[in-house]
Amino acid sequence: MTGNDTRPFERLAGDESRRSFLKKSAIATVGLSAAASGVASAQDGPGDGAIGEGPWKALIFQNNLYPEARFTFVSGVVEWNPSYGGIDDSWFTDYNTRMIRWLNTGEHVQLFVADDAEVGQYDENLGFVVDDEEREQPQVYEVSPEWSLFEDDPKLATINFGPAEEETEDQLLEADGWWADEQDAVVTDRGEGNATSGGNTTTSG
């Protein structure tokens, strides 16, 4: 089975905004029926609120894995889990499905994050999990170099990840301005009277 067979979101090309991606992904998803606030619906737990120190455990399809790469969360908790072969929802009772953006490739893929991971809050207006210190920019996370197969299923890998150093985060975000485009879109919406809440209003995730 290829990555395209298992991935419920269609990968989008071009320079579409993050908000547009989330809306279109809901249409292309098997079993998903909402975007933005729907995608950001969260489960209660220690992952709400401030960002912890890590590292935390997560699962990812092997063909989407980049050891030691950095990423940002670009959704809240998505109410979807893989189901194929011997894999079903029971395998994922301790994990939450989220979408991430790899900063090295710009790809948007699924990450199945352990329930106890304190990854911070998703801002549905900005389209990413915000940094605790700089609330208008995303928090950057990095993957540990070591990884292993997920139990008996070779399609999934077990990884550890945590927040990147602040200096590393700032350098990466300065070089990649996708998140600033989202910020500009929010400001434009406010100016046109279309925004219903401030840019720092967050949806727990």
TrEMBL record:
InterPro entries: TAT_signal, TAT_signal_bac_arc. This is Twin-arginine translocation signal domain-containing protein. Residues 184-205 are annotated as: Disordered. It comes from Haloterrigena gelatinilytica. Residues 193-205 have a biased composition (Low complexity).
